[in-house]
């Protein structure tokens, strides 16, 4: 049985998108599916919020886009990670690991360890 | 980098892409749902619901793509465009005002730029300079840009921080090309290294070598590209060929590239061979220097300071009040024009300021009637910043349109003015309307938009909401704005007065000059000069033969009434010479200065000089006959006073002449006469036939004799006859330019005329602007107070009373403005003092005339709009609202 979905934290959507496209060029809907798939349906992204985030990343130079062909011969816009985006993703990932580790430590602390 | 801003420039593409992308997304989701077994209708609904509001998403995407501000700006400008189009009278007034003001600024700036700022057309122009010599006198430092041969040699031999060269002024000379044909061309003599210092190498051949720049060195010449194309058909084999300059052979050693030019343009360059005697004994050379790599202007100046001290010590000068320093080439070239040109620039800036004040007034008036609209928008949630941005967008839009119109007007004006301005002011660089001028115009327009838009926008967005909304639209105009507008009109009139007075002050001397009696009849006389500084004219007999034969030939030409030759012409600068009266009660113990010119028979007749006493020169006055002279009235008044001039003798530096006649004064440029462009000065005329020897020949080193011909026939035919007459003696002697005596006359004060015309036009523009400002103020107040005037009329006021009341503020404000302007103009007059002549800076006529014009124009501008009241029907007016 699937766990109930969790809301994503403010500011983490950009990171998730970068991670999703780092595995290969994707169109918007594909990004949504990949995030859901990797998180085993745990992360639910509001569909409308995806596009402003993509526009922000593109304006920031972290992804580029190009029109191409997707399944059923439809024209879709594909997003691809840039070098700057890859660097950004690495930094964000490192930051996120440190943050979650620290928070994890705090939450796991027992009285005897303090 | 550019890609990030692509959405800004491809807006339509951006929108359609976004549309397609979102549609594609929903389609995919729907297909997924359907494939999972959801019914198509249900899938459609869920896809829409889960996506959220598409317009909101799009707006967020636009914002994330950095398009939000552009959208706001575009909306503001679209709205501004609609507002301005709805009010064409207002918009047109503002745009025309702006176009006129900015056009005038563009035109004047292009002149100022060409004269003072534009970099020279050589590599690294900021490392080029001229050496100037300053001497201290009781009136401060006196600066001279030309140097003596000794100065040149000293600096050349000692300077380490700069590469130096020296050159002469421009000289008109006769050139005979191997292909035949004689040409009058402009020559500059330059030292070796001249082209190296400027940083331009000859296109073919080489520049002048040191051994050619020495006395007795080979005679060589470097041609300009223009001359090479014109006279030698761009012949690449020109090097080594011989040309005749002033009758002497010169070998061509180089041709300069097409892009190379000097100011003014030269046709060819020959070695200067500088010396410390003769020409080099006086200040006749101009130095041009280029800083050596690694040296700065400051280092070069410091070195010159040290060298100056060494020069003083070496020459044992008693007065150690001399120093050398570097000045820019532009300053050296245009020193005497700097004042007038800067004055014009200031004047045109003032016009722009008046224009701004005018437009600010109009904006304020309109802001008043828009109070209601603005209050409504604020009540509906527009922030003050938003309103301000909106109002400024309107100003900027007006400024942009006005700026474009202004540039077009300015370019048109300069097209017409360029020939006159170039001929009169001789700018260092050609006057062009290029990117430099365009950028300055654009900046002016934008700055203008901000200046005239900011205060009205601020004032309008500061309104009291409740009051503005509560009151009716007509009476909402705040009193504060009305006061501000009155203040603006006063400013405008005061500034206009300054310009008008300045124009009046500059115009007065011109009127005086135009009114001067020439002393002769300049109509129907054609003149041209010949350079006799030529190897074939080094003996007096050759010169006499040329004069006699060509005149005989000319007089035989049908249609020629009279012909003669004189060393100089009226309105030009004559030769100064020493003179001593030998006998009579005013016999002189010492030599005094006078103007001296030789004339042939026919000179007085052609120009129609009037004989006051005695006789003209006649056939009997030949070389072997007793020497005679004719003097002018000023000579008699100044030197002989009540004594009878006839029969007295003057010594003209070696030869003694008997005075046989007195002629009327003519106007001439002279250091001896009164201060100013032209004035009569004491003059002695001697018959050319009685002159002989070295002194006679030497006169032609500095002056070229002028042929004058009186004829009613077409100028081209007379010019042809003159050429033919000279060619009958010498085929290789070309005339310089042909001019009518009327042109000679108007050329004598072209500078004053140009200045008066330009300043006068600016003043007229200022007057029109002030009138428009006053008209606008009164018209607006009449419109606002229509109801009030209707009531007054209904209550029995006469129309005249009502009109007077409406017009009064305009006239009153003019008087206040004129009062303030009076004091400003007096200060401005003091600044003008150095360009004025024959008029006091507080000239009563100029001030009174200007005030009268201003008051009449103000009265008209105030009365015209109040005529509306005369047509007012009280009943209708009261029923409205």
Report the portion of residues of chain A in β strands: 15-25%
Catalogue the unreliable spans of chain B.
472-477
| CATH superfamily label of chain A | Winged helix-like DNA-binding domain superfamily/Winged helix DNA-binding domain
Coarse morphology of chain A: elongated
Instruction: Supply Rg of chain A.
Output: 17 Å
Structure summary, number of beta strands of chain B: 23
Number of helices of chain B: 28
Overall structural class of chain B, as computed from helix and strand content, comes to alpha+beta
The largest inter-chain interface, given as chain pair and residues per side, is: A-B, 24 and 27 residues
Topology of chain A as a string of helices (H) and strands (E)? EHEHEHEEH
CATH fold-level name of chain A? Arc Repressor Mutant, subunit A
Strand order of the largest sheet of chain A: 2-5-4
Query: What is the average per-residue confidence, as pLDDT of chain A, rounded to a whole number?
Result: 84
Q: How much helicity do the residues of chain B have?
A: 40-55%
Tally of individual domains of chain B: 4
> What is the helix tally of chain A?
4
As a percent range, the share of helical residues of chain A equals 40-55%
CATH class category label of chain A: Mainly Alpha
Molecular shape of chain B: globular
Distance between the termini of chain B: 59 Å
Features of the shown structure:
heterodimer, A: 114 residues, alpha+beta, Arc Repressor Mutant, subunit A, three-stranded antiparallel β-sheet, two-stranded parallel ribbon, elongated, B: 881 residues, six-stranded mixed barrel, 16% strand
Strand-helix topology:
The complex is a heterodimer of chains A (114) and B (881).
Chain A: E1 6-7, H1 12-22, E2 26-27, H2 28-38, E3 43-44, H3 50-59, E4 63-70, E5 74-81, H4 83-108
Parallel strand pairs in A: 1-3
Antiparallel strand pairs in A: 2-5, 4-5
Chain B: H1 6-9, H2 11-35, H3 40-51, H4 54-64, H5 68-86, H6 88-117, E1 128-137, E2 140-144, E3 146-147, H7 149-158, E4 162-176, E5 182-190, H8 194-198, E6 204-205, E7 220-223, H9 225-232, E8 242-245, E9 248-255, E10 268-271, E11 285-291, H10 297-315, E12 322-327, H11 329-333, H12 335-369, H13 371-379, H14 384-425, H15 435-460, H16 465-470, H17 479-515, E13 525-530, H18 540-556, E14 560-566, E15 575-581, E16 592-599, H19 603-607, E17 611-614, E18 628-632, H20 633-640, E19 649-651, E20 656-663, E21 683-687, H21 693-698, E22 706-711, H22 715-727, E23 735-740, H23 741-748, H24 750-784, H25 786-794, H26 799-832, H27 844-870, H28 874-879
Parallel strand pairs in B: 5-10, 7-9, 16-21, 18-20
Antiparallel strand pairs in B: 1-2, 1-11, 1-12, 3-11, 4-5, 4-8, 4-11, 6-9, 7-10, 8-9, 13-22, 13-23, 14-22, 15-16, 15-19, 17-20, 18-21, 19-20
Helix pairs in contact in B: 2-3, 5-14, 6-12, 6-14, 6-15, 12-15, 12-17, 12-24, 14-15, 17-24, 17-26, 17-27, 18-22, 24-25, 24-26, 24-27, 26-27
